[in-house]
Write a structure and sequence with these properties.
- The protein is mostly helical and 104 residues long.
- The protein is built from three helices and no strands.
- The protein is flat, with a radius of gyration of 18 Å.
């Protein structure tokens, strides 16, 4: 018997992306909690730790933002506005947290 080709749906691809981003965020956060304080002792590695922290934050953002959008997309306009405001605040907070330590 010939195998049937199974095409991935958009929902499966999105779920796969969310799962991957959740894993990356968890892995980087665990790595930074354990080795971050040690790596921060060396001035040359401080930028690398900051970049890893930024990647962890954005991976967490993707892992949280997509399911949150699925929750609010069929709700009233107020829910969607709250979602967008919270998303913008999170992104700006992550960027300021990344840029300010390098500038100062």
């Amino acid at each position: 018997m010939a195998k049937q080709k199974h095409e991935r749906t958009e929902r499966q691809a999105r779920a796969s992306l969310v799962n991957l981003c959740a894993f990356i965020a968890l892995f980087l956060a665990a790595f930074l909690y354990v080795l971050g304080p040690i790596l921060n002792l060396f001035d040359s590695l401080h930028t690398i730790v900051s970049v890893l922290n930024l990647l962890a934050s954005y991976s967490l953002l993707i892992a949280i933002a997509l399911p949150a959008w699925n929750f609010v997309c069929h709700k009233t306009k107020g829910w969607r506005i709250c979602y967008i405001v919270a998303l913008v605040i999170y992104i700006v907070g992550v960027m300021l947290g990344f840029v300010l330590p390098i500038v100062v």
